[in-house]
Give the backbone structure.
Amino acid sequence: MKRLVLALLLAAAPALAVQPGEMLADPALEARAREISSVLRCPVCQGETIDDSNAPVARDLRLVVRERVMAGDTNDQVIDFVVDRFGEFVLFEPRAKGANIILWIAGPMMLLIGLAGAAVYLRRRGTQPETAPRPLDEDEARRLKEILNE
């Protein structure tokens, strides 16, 4: 039973593409490298971090990140180094500056516009007077009596 539980836990763990030969000997530096790699997108796979990707360019980026960490760069310096070479595209969360500010503002603005539109709709819908049905004219009343008598 214990083996089954262990096997299920191992199967549920994320499969990272980091090879044992790429890992740093110092656990603290390796943890920093993993933290940096978690915010960098693979330029080939586009939906995966460089730690999750098996693409050769992702492997190269993992090695570059580890080299920069070993050289004593801060996390921001390593990320800036990679962004200088590949552009803002490699960041999973674009920085809130320049043209990217539109991406950061667009979501909340659309939400506010949607909420305002819903409020206006609900307010107008609630204030419309209910119209009473108009009374039947003589022809309609006569026709209704004929139908009911049949």
Residues 8-15 have pLDDT under 50 and may be disordered. The longest helix spans residues 101-127. Helices lie at 2-12, 27-37, 56-70, 75-86, 101-127, 138-149.
